[in-house]
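Ticket #4471: structure export looks truncated?
Reporter: QA, pipeline team
Priority: medium

Steps to reproduce: submit the single chain below to the structure queue and open the exported record.
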Amino acid sequence: MTVPLERTYRIGNDLERITEVVGDIVSLARAHFPNTGQLEVAVYEALYNAIEHGNLGLSFDEKRSLIECGRHDEWIAARRKSEPYASRIVTVVLQFTDQEMRITVSDEGDGFDWEKTIAELDDGQLVGVNGRGIRIMQSAFDEVNYHERGTAVTLTKKRERT
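Actual output as written to the record:
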C-alpha cells in the first residue's frame, strides 16, 4: 500500500490562479489516470464555480443576464475588488489513496440549494450556461458530492484496478 498524497491549495478570487492549480493537479493525476483531459476541464469548472458563484455570489439568473448584455467580465472584475468578496478564499484539497483521487473545493460564499439545482438539471430545466459545470464534473468523476450548505463539493475518481 502506498502512502496517500495530500496537497492543499488556497487561492483568492484570482481566476488566473485556477490554471496553475489545475495544472498541478492534472500533472499529479496523470500517473494514475491515463486520460486526464476531461478531469482537467471538470476541476477547472469546480474552481471557477467556487469563485464566480460561491465567493463572488453570482446567481444563475444574474450570470445569464450579464452574459446576454455583454457585461459578465466587467461585473466579475468589479466584484473581485469589492468587500466582502475581495478577501474570500477558495480552498482545494487534493488526496490520492490506493483506491481513488478525491478533490474537495470549498468557498466562503453563502452556498446554494444544490439539491434543487441538481433536480432542475435532471429535469432539463437548466439549459445554456446554467449547470454546465456541474454536468461536466458529473461526467468526469465517479462521484460529485455537495456538502450541506453548498459551499463545498467533493469530486471522487476511482482508480482502475490492473
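Status: closed, not a bug. The export was complete when the record was re-opened. Leaving a note from the reviewer for reference: The chain is about 45% helix and 20% strand.
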